[in-house]
Amino acid sequence: VAMAHLVAGLARCWCPSPLQVINFPVVQLHMSLMAMRASQKDFENAMNQVKLLKKDPGNEVKLKLYALYKQATEGPCNTPKPGVFDLISKAKWDTWSALGSLPKETARQNYVDLVSSLSSSSKSSGQVEPGADRKPPGYETLVVTSEDGITKIMLNRPTKKNAMNRQMYHEIMLALEAASKDDSRITVITGNGDYYSSGNDLTNFTDMASGKVEELAKNSAILLRNFVGCFIDFPKPLVAVVNGPAVGISVTTLGLFDAVYSTDRATFHTPFSHLGQSPEGCSSYTFPRIMSPSKATEMLIFGKKLTAREACAQGLVTEVFPDSTFQKEVWTRLKAYAKLPPNAMRISKEVIRNKEKEKLHAINAEECSVLQERWLSDECMNAVMNFLSRKAKL
Ligand SMILES: CCCCC/C=C/CC(=O)SCCNC(=O)CCNC(=O)[C@H](O)C(C)(C)COP(=O)(O)OP(=O)(O)OC[C@H]1O[C@@H](n2cnc3c(N)ncnc32)[C@H](O)[C@@H]1OP(=O)(O)O
């Protein structure tokens, strides 16, 4: 349901008309192509053409259209930043704000050009296909359940070792938002299959090899910042049930959980240097504090892989359990914890987290902006290409 809300919300946000719907009638489109300087009339035409697009252009394009429309009509973003859990408004605000001081005329031209490119790639057959672009409700990359006072968010791409693709980042944010408001007392993140998660899905970077790499890097940095922001702000006790090896962002974000229970089969590593990347998930701040600066360096710079017992000795993991009894022991304990008074748990978390919330958000912003540059480096692109061409296992 939350996913449906986001999709519907974004479907509304890219076009000024409140009547905009997700399905588009199939209509032959007539374009004012390649106008060097878009007039107000061109702009109005483009707004009308947007409503006639046959194919849903996807959320990123809709956000871009929204931002360009706002910039063209109102100028630079001048509204207060929405809260981190107001996902749709925040995504819209971020995209508009990213346009900086782009002149109104240029934004108008870019809007017209973008609509033009969408329209020319939109096939027209003269028939309406009801429901063709409608997404089914629910999560595609997660299984989310709630019982015994515990909401369990299970990463569910076991054949890809639960690598986090863009869809999964968005769905985790939505699931956390929903869990923050449901009547559960504890929220758990775990993985399906033999891995907790192999971290960022490296195919997220495939598009960087072609076309608008700067734009993709910028959008990825915004997505990452919002994603990590949800962990910083999550108001209830958040527990990781680490059912197997964890890599990259699935390790760094552990520093933002309230407890981390691990099977003795799990390993933990962050191969950032191997990938030409740099730390994220606030790990540049949390890891040196949790471990010691030099132990954090071994992980974050040299990519040292820790066993579960080593990670526990370093303070990253709360407790390690034998794999054979892991699930039974952990869930028995969590069910007992979930009987504790919910308000007391929430308030205690608030007292602990509030001391450094602002700092964590600042660290998150800085890490994302450094990464945005890193993603464009040869070191990063070569490492990703190596993985995708199966030359290297990390
Ligand atoms: C929006 C952008 C935000 C960016 C945030 C940045 C985060 C930084 C990080 O997270 S860095 C960490 C990135 N992760 C990795 O580098 C891990 C890469 N994967 C591996 O090294 C290995 O796959 C493995 C060690 C995790 C597992 O090896 P194993 O041999 O046991 O299994 P396979 O390699 O055969 O994997 C099975 C299939 O899963 C696919 N896969 C696994 N991990 C990833 C991944 N991270 N990205 C994309 N795909 C992944 C793998 O390709 C296999 O798929 P196939 O069966 O179709 O070949």
From TrEMBL:
* Annotated catalysed reactions: (3Z)-octenoyl-CoA = (2E)-octenoyl-CoA; a (3Z)-enoyl-CoA = a 4-saturated (2E)-enoyl-CoA; (2E)-tetradecenoyl-CoA = (3Z)-tetradecenoyl-CoA; (3E)-nonenoyl-CoA = (2E)-nonenoyl-CoA
Where it sits in the cell: the answer is: Mitochondrion; Peroxisome matrix
How would you classify this enzyme at the top EC level? Answer: isomerase
Please give the chief subcellular localization of this protein: mitochondrion
- In short, the EC number is 5.3.3.8
Superkingdom of this entry's organism? Answer: Eukaryota
**Metabolic or biological pathway, per its Swiss-Prot or TrEMBL entry:** Lipid metabolism; fatty acid beta-oxidation
GO terms assigned for molecular function: delta(3)-delta(2)-enoyl-CoA isomerase activity; fatty-acyl-CoA binding
Q: Where is this region: Disordered?
A: 120-140
Under the heading Pfam families, the entry gives:
ACBP (PF00887), ECH_1 (PF00378)
- Which segments constitute the ACB domain? 39-124
Q: What is one GO cellular-component annotation here?
A: mitochondrion
Q: Which UniProt keywords apply?
A: Acetylation, Isomerase, Mitochondrion, Peroxisome, Phosphoprotein, Transit peptide
Per the entry, what this protein does is: Able to isomerize both 3-cis and 3-trans double bonds into the 2-trans form in a range of enoyl-CoA species. Has a preference for 3-trans substrates.
Q: Which PANTHER family match?
A: ENOYL-COA DELTA ISOMERASE 2, PTHR43684
- Similarity comment: family membership: In the C-terminal section; belongs to the enoyl-CoA hydratase/isomerase family.
| Protein name per its UniProtKB record | Enoyl-CoA delta isomerase 2
Q: Which organism is it from?
A: Prolemur simus
